[in-house]
Amino acid sequence: MRKPFIAGNWKMYKTASEARELVQGLRRALTDTKGVEVAVCPPFTALAQVAEELKGTEIKLGAQDLFWEEEGAFTGEVSPVMLKDLGCEYVIIGHSERRQYFGETDEQVNKKVKAALAHGLKPIICVGETLAQRDAGQTESLVREQVEKALAGLERERVPEIVIAYEPIWAIGTGRSSNGTDANQVIGLIRRTIAGMFGTEVAAEVRIQYGGSVKPQNIKEFMAEAEIDGALVGGASLQVDSFAAIVLYQV
Q: What is the pTM of this model?
């Protein structure tokens, strides 16, 4: 049985002091999360402060990106060693905004996934199509290719440690979201792709989230689908009430 996993991606929001305030609110609102795993992914500048606030809670800490080298002359980058030292357990890799604005490639995503696993971090690997690609009927081929390239060369026993987040790019920050049936169909394809690479038993262990304008009003629709194991939440994770309502969707 895969445990549901709700993660908040704060993107480039929240100063360190604002992040502290948000986590303090989440601590009060999320006193019992036994039925679901929860993580928050603040900006790099707030990781240390959030880690401090999360002590004594069940909420996990994640980062929004990493570089694949342990150290070196890579100005502006953050290594997996640094993230682990701060207490991170998860790291988002390959988000569409990284691909779109910073030219991140499938090959770079693969290097980052391997670096994360090598240093005890669990990758949340983002895949998804644009509206133009969706309208052209390319969703399945594109998502399959992204998954295959992200997981290329991984050891079979490490694969259950990863999380995949299906985020249709046309639904991120637009207020539009996929419906549960369509999202479940693509996530089923992702699971079959993993099964083709590593076997059905491994694929059955991998948690696959939906992301893209997830909010309290639609979380139950997605979580009712058999293949969907959670959500990667953007804007709604920046407010205590909305994120808590998503985490506690089953109540």
A: 0.96
